[in-house]
Amino acid sequence: MKFYCGRALEDAHDAVADVEVTIDVFQAQIQRYGLEPDTKKLTKEYKGQVNYLDQGFYIKENEEGQLTFDFGKH
Q1: Cys-Cys with 50: which of 14, 30, 45, 60 at CB 3.0–4.6 Å?
Q2: What are the tens digits of pLDDT across the range 38-51?
Q3: DSSP-based three-state secondary structure for 65
């Protein structure tokens, strides 16, 4: 949150706050990396790959063929 949005994360692990932070960070990543905010295009670009994004986050395809963001110790 601080890296992409320039502010501290408040109310971490509160469901609504976590969703709002996810949206804010995703939108900031779209802007920072010059991506189109189109999930179908993003899926096509990354499908079947494991890619380092930033700040220890990875994106990959799960067993159901959906994109997932992996981070944390588990």
Answers
A1: 60
A2: 777 776 665 555 55
A3: coil
